[in-house]
Design a protein that fits this description.
The structure is a single chain. The chain is α/β, with parallel strands linked by helices and 294 residues long. Helix content is 37%, strand content 15%. The protein has a single domain, classed as Rossmann fold. The chain contains 8 helices and 8 strands; from the N terminus they run E-H-E-H-E-H-E-H-E-H-E-H-H-E-E-H. It has an 8-stranded mixed beta sheet, with helices on both faces. The relative contact order is 0.15.
């Protein structure tokens, strides 16, 4: 079976791709290949100085805009100041297994960065998006649980691993629900998911203890950043149906990209609709896409 690689990325001249978290790891590898393919790449970054340094070293037409994906005011500022079409939005920025921290809006930081931020940014930019939204998730969404009564970890005893898994389940449910709502609205924009398997990036720098040691010792079993980025590149450039879930061809953590299936619970439409409503209430965005349930 043919293995899809970055060399198979089509020519993207004339297309605009905005990517969050594009200054390191998988996001950086993705941005580099998109620029090499001729796309206009917009790095949406929290640190403008770092973003500009990175942009100066990337091939192609690279621009930098400021956004803190864990800060609703910052997200609104970016979306409110952006007036041009975006062919592809890639929700790549994420954090993993942080100690309990709160965002400027008072949200648990992994929930804010991995779910509520992408939810708000996507919905606010949606009138400008012309082709697709790619949301980067994790295979660990399969371990997550949906706690609609306590999304923000106000009542539960905090566990950084559980919080990460839950946030990735939430964003997976969001991306699938987004595609259903876009279809119901008659939109041609599609929403797709990508997961990199396990990749050796700085995302795991916060992971300590036995699990962190295992991640670092497993380097020969997992993807490097460039290979991990292939799932995102595939999801962003190939003609795949809305609602697709792209991941490594191997046993869940390593390999070249192919279409896979998310956890069945991620496709629970009734639960996803309730999650959407909760996110609308928390972020003040997303109410413009009507629910598809009766």
């Amino acid at each position: 079976m043919t293995r899809w690689t970055a060399a198979d990325t089509p020519i993207l001249t004339g297309r605009t791709v905005m990517i969050t978290g594009g200054t390191s790891g998988i996001g950086l590898s993705t941005a580099r290949e998109l620029g090499r393919a001729g796309a206009r790449v917009v790095l949406a970054v929290r640190d403008l100085a770092k973003g500009r340094r990175v942009a100066s070293e990337l091939p192609g037409l690279i621009e930098v805009v400021e956004v803190d994906i864990a800060n609703l005011a910052s997200i609104r500022a970016l979306a409110g100041g952006w007036s041009e079409p975006i062919d592809v939005l890639i929700n790549n920025a994420g954090v993993m297994q942080l100690p309990l921290t709160r965002s400027p809006d008072g949200f648990e930081m992994q929930t804010a960065t991995n779910f509520l931020g992408p939810f708000a940014l996507t919905n606010l930019l949606l009138p400008r998006i012309t082709e697709r939204v790619v949301t980067v998730t994790s295979a660990l969404h399969r371990q997550g649980q949906l706690h609609l009564d306590d999304l923000n970890w106000d009542q539960r005893k905090y566990n950084r691993t559980t919080a990460y898994n839950d946030s990735k389940l939430c964003v997976t449910m969001f991306a699938l629900e987004l595609d259903l709502r876009l279809n119901a609205a008659g939109s041609t924009v599609r929403s797709v998911l990508a997961h990199p398997g396990i990749a050796t990036t700085n995302l795991v720098s916060h992971v300590d203890g036995l699990q962190g040691t295992v991640y670092r010792l497993m380097r020969f079993l997992v993807n490097d950043a460039d290979t991990g980025a292939l799932s995102t590149l595939y999801a962003a450039t190939q003609d795949i149906p809305g609602g697709s879930y792209v991941g490594p061809r191997g046993p869940g953590i390593k390999g070249h990209p192919t279409l896979r299936r998310p956890a069945a619970k991620a496709g629970d439409h009734n639960a996803a609709s309730r999650l959407w409503d909760a996110a609308v209430e928390l972020t003040g965005t997303g109410a413009n896409l009507a629910p598809t349930r009766p």
